[in-house]
Structure prediction request, 644 residues.
Amino acid sequence: MRNFGVLLIAAGLLSFAHGVTGAAPPATSPGSQAADGLRKPVAAAEVIAASAPSDWMPLDPQNTLYVELRGGRVVIALDPLFAPHHVANVEALAREHYYDGLAIVRSQDNYVVQWADPEGKRTIKHAQHTLPAEFERTSRGLPFKPLPDPDTYAPEVGFSDTFPAAVDPKFGRAWLVHCYGMVGAGRDNDVDSGGGTELYVVTGHAPRHLDRNVTLLGRVVQGIELLSALPRGTGTLGFYEKPEQRTPIRSVRVAADVPESERTELEVMRTDTATFAAYVEARRNRREEWFKVPAGHVDVCNVPVPVRPRTEGAQKTRASHQ
Amino acid sequence: MRNFGVLLIAAGLLSFAHGVTGAAPPATSPGSQAADGLRKPVAAAEVIAASAPSDWMPLDPQNTLYVELRGGRVVIALDPLFAPHHVANVEALAREHYYDGLAIVRSQDNYVVQWADPEGKRTIKHAQHTLPAEFERTSRGLPFKPLPDPDTYAPEVGFSDTFPAAVDPKFGRAWLVHCYGMVGAGRDNDVDSGGGTELYVVTGHAPRHLDRNVTLLGRVVQGIELLSALPRGTGTLGFYEKPEQRTPIRSVRVAADVPESERTELEVMRTDTATFAAYVEARRNRREEWFKVPAGHVDVCNVPVPVRPRTEGAQKTRASHQ
Prediction:
């Protein structure tokens, strides 16, 4: 960053991506409050920087998974509201160490990575091999904050707690949607052939055609780059052709079972607050100087719910896997 | 693939992704034609397998770039219909070897990779440093095949030749859209500060909020995995913090300047044919056995325009960067 050429890139792209990463939120600007007390439109990073502690909620250690890879830890927030039986089964599988020693067997560009038992020799002691599908649920009693813009695939999209979701009000149904970083349970042709023994993570453009065809059960909130930057498998569908190309899974643990000193303490922005509404608006109409034509709309998968370390608070806010 | 466990994954996921990759198209099935002569709905891979030579068009070597990296060649189809001056300038930069020896300086997860002159020392001989923005153009006289489904961001989306594009009929304007694999010219805050010296490639969920804010000029049609699987930079916005982390760019050449024997001969599916319309329909409503709830809709960025080697024809069809 020592000369004009690189400064030009940095300057241009810093504003280019503010709020996409939330990586370098500026301090709250006095300019974000007009002199007459009316709030001016602000950028996403400013919304995050100005948020209150009550705008955030910690991850529930009972519904958080740590996937330990050679390169580090992937943290997954599980969603028992949409997939209660799959979440319980994945936790049971983790607790009997079913996943330990398995491997990432597949990385398909712009689509998914997936882990599984490559030799098919692992036995299950207490958990279930398969479960009835949890593709959707009733929308009754569900927390849901819709976005204002039309969606290509669903009547309404928005957020249920901290997860991207869709609702069909006519039929009273709701489902999680396949945004980047979402985690699901692979299945065979039979809809009830999943259960969590093989999990996949979306690492490309949202494959929304999978919605309601497979059980989603959570999302990666930290460490997605340990999965998304893996070499692509050269076999059909991105399967690795040689065993040594696979990435070993050292262990998968429920956070509550890990000593507190070894936990990754994260908090996620609540989606039922005025702060989140301001964040959505900042994503709909980007106010950073770089942007000239605000989009006026936003895709549910372009609203990454912010995640940050609990201990560091607003000083080091990070947007989840974006 | 020797035991039940792995067969189960393969069986389930083969149908899971047919047409996403087009990686293993089945032979045209007799079952795709009903006995009474009426066509049954077919899967995307079947549409591709049954296509005629006239459904495809070769890449124009005058508007094709080869980016040579240590790991192989990235092929970019340029679009002079939307960005004539940027395309001409990028070709001029390639012809004076401006890019040779530059580096990929940035890989930001779920967003973009970008190459540039990291030291800012390179001089330009004949090409332009910057150009007026080419964010949009008139829709008059433009080839454009709209998709039938609503889009979150634009009044109409579809394909202009082989590129994903949007149209606003009310104002008679058209623009390329930021799908996975699209290539654009980085710029500073001034809209006319780009020109092609720094190119970026979308490697994540479509950042459609960039549409009409930056000049798109082409798309990667082969070799995207050489960019998308790069380690993410750990600096702000995914910049690499150490020079040795950057990926060197050996050279960038216009295909027409490369001896024919060294070219990558590809052809792209035309988008103005009944075959492409059938392909779109197959993407809107997936007919593979694995799918239980056809989406009934499709996002423009979930319709990867198929690309395949010219010499191998339908035997080895590949979908671009999907």
Q: What stands out?
A: DSSP finds five helices and 17 strands in chain A. Residues 1-38, 314-322 of chain A have pLDDT under 50 and may be disordered. Chain A touches chain B through 85 residues (CB under 8 Å).
